[in-house]
Each structure stands twice: as structure tokens, then as C-alpha cells.
Amino acid sequence: MNDNILRIAIQKSGRLSEDSLKLIKECGIRFDNGAGKLKTDATNFPAEILFLRDDDIPGYVEDGVAHLGIVGENVSEESCKDVDTVHKLGFSKCRLSIGVLREAEYHGVQDLEGKSIATTYPRLLEQYLKSHNVTADIHEISGSVEIAPSIGLADAVCDIVSSGSTLLSNGLKEVETIFRSEAVMIASKHLSPVQQDLLDQLLFRIKSVQVAKNNKYILLNCPVDAVENITKFLPGMRSPTILPLATEGWCSLHSVINENKFWENIEKIRQAGAEGILVIPIEKMIV
Ligand code: ATP
Ligand code: MG
């Protein structure tokens, strides 16, 4: 096998696919992902992309067939494969929760003692129950978990939830959250030195993309005597850039701001005398 390239496994089609592809592209890695392809070569980075079922990714990475993989933490943790989680990717956020019938009385996790719980996540559920000293009958099924209580297959379910609407529409209520998940990058424990170096390059690019997403470039006009006040809210990476305007006593101030901070501070910036405020997305940010 070629030790000088990185094989990156991503989900072929599902909730992780689009964001995984987008992230790889935002890192400047180009490849042809024609429909139905299961493997493709990157054209400008020593990498191959494998398109797989998400459940298979941790195993491929453990075996070293793939060197990196993008999966939900839920799938990676449940698989118990011996891989390194090298970075959290911030998308596909969801939680693994226990749900019971809406009309069932529920006071706490002890109420699950002796009950049957249907799930596709038996290991994570078992760990959770064990840590709460509860013994329940874990019923492993591979899909459509939510209907189990209404057809009498189980008393409760343990499944992935994002908004909770699937639980609700199946007559269930969410009673415990046992695990919070997001997409993560996992890596093989047996990378060659070249592959480790390529992984470091890739992580550097991913972090630059993530930082850029959380920040905006801001331009505004203000009276020169308002600069000091406005700078308190827009400290920038080192300090803002100030350029004179053709109008005497006015300048243009350029800075970078965290998007959340922008919404917190925008009123104060305006009250301090800022006008003509432009907010521009940043593509990459090297800090
Ligand atoms: P595959 O066919 O590859 O086995 P799958 O049906 O097992 O796919 P998906 O439903 O595509 O998996 O979900 C993939 C991952 O996306 C989940 O393991 C979880 O980490 C995350 N996920 C699942 N549901 C949601 C949701 N509603 N919102 C956000 N992320 C989710
Ligand atoms: Mg799957």
C-alpha cells in the first residue's frame, strides 16, 4: 500500500455526506466526485476519497484501509474501534436520547429498571445504564426504532434526536440525553510519517476554515474622534486598520469580529458614530 497518500473515508450518502464533501473542498482539495463513484483521487493533494456506509468507517480506519474518516461521534464511540479522534468538525450535531410513551409516568432514570429499551446503540446505552446503576433489557434493532413502544416491542427507545420531532410524531417524549454528538475526524493509529505530516496539513486547513466561519470582516465609516471608542468593540486581530476618507474628519475603519460578538455590539458601534457598516464573509483565516 502507498504510505505517501492519505485515504479519507466519508459517508457515501446520508446526513454527513454533503458537509463532509464541502469541508474537504473548502480545504482546497479538488477531486471529481461523479455520481456513484466509490473511490476518487484528489487532483491537487496526495489523497484518495472513499465513499462508504458510515457504520463501516471506524472499522476501515482501525484496520488502516482508510487513514482518516469523517463520522458522527455516536457511530465512532458505539463501534469501540481503536482509532484516534483528532478533531471535532462542528456539523451534524445531534444527541442520543431515551424516549418513552408520552402517556407513561416517568420520574427519573431509575424508572427504566427492568424495562426493555430498543436501540441501534446498545453499547452506549449499556454504559449509560451501568453508570446509573440501572439494569434494563437492551433490545438491539437496526432501524425504525421509534415505533418499538407503540407496537409493544419495547417500553422505551434510545435513538438519535436533533429536533425531537420524530419522537413526538411517534407518540414519544424525550426523557434522558445520554450522549451529545457531532461529526468528528478519526485517524488510524498506524500512520506513516508522511501521512502524519499530511494529516497535520489537513488539520491546519480545517482549523483555518472553521475560524474563518466564526468571524467576519467589517468595514465602517466614522468620525476620527470616534475611532478610540469604536475600537473597544472591534479590537481586530492586532488592531483595526484606519484609512482616511476624502471628507475631512472622517475615516474608514476595517476590522475582524467574531459573528456572535458582532450582534452583541452592533448597537454600541452605531451609537458611537459608525455609519455605512459592511460585513463580509472571510474564506480562510490563519491565526
Ligand atoms: P448509512 O447509510 O451511511 O449507514 P445512516 O442511515 O446510518 O447512513 P444517517 O441518517 O445519514 O445515517 O446519519 C449519519 C449521522 O448523522 C448519524 O450517525 C449522526 O451522527 C448524524 N445525524 C443523524 N441524525 C441527525 C439529525 N437529525 N440531525 C443532525 N445529524 C444527524
Ligand atoms: Mg449507518
UniProtKB/TrEMBL annotation:
Alphabetic keyword roster: Amino-acid biosynthesis, ATP-binding, Cytoplasm, Glycosyltransferase, Histidine biosynthesis, Magnesium, Metal-binding, Nucleotide-binding, Transferase
Cofactor: Mg(2+)
Activity regulation details: Feedback inhibited by histidine.
Membrane-spanning intervals of the chain: none
Any one of the GO CC terms: cytoplasm
Gene3D superfamilies in alphabetical order: 3.30.70.120, Periplasmic binding protein-like II (3.40.190.10)
Domain of life: Bacteria
EC number: 2.4.2.17
GO biological process: L-histidine biosynthetic process
Protein's pathway: Amino-acid biosynthesis; L-histidine biosynthesis; L-histidine from 5-phospho-alpha-D-ribose 1-diphosphate: step 1/9
Molecular function, one GO term: ATP binding
NCBIfam families per UniProt: hisG, HisG_C-term
Family, per entry: Belongs to the ATP phosphoribosyltransferase family. Long subfamily.
Known function: Catalyzes the condensation of ATP and 5-phosphoribose 1-diphosphate to form N'-(5'-phosphoribosyl)-ATP (PR-ATP). Has a crucial role in the pathway because the rate of histidine biosynthesis seems to be controlled primarily by regulation of HisG enzymatic activity.
Record HAMAP family: HisG_Long
Name this protein carries in UniProt: ATP phosphoribosyltransferase
Organism of this sequence: Dyadobacter jiangsuensis
Lineage: Bacteria, Pseudomonadati, Bacteroidota, Cytophagia, Cytophagales
Gene symbol of the encoding locus: hisG
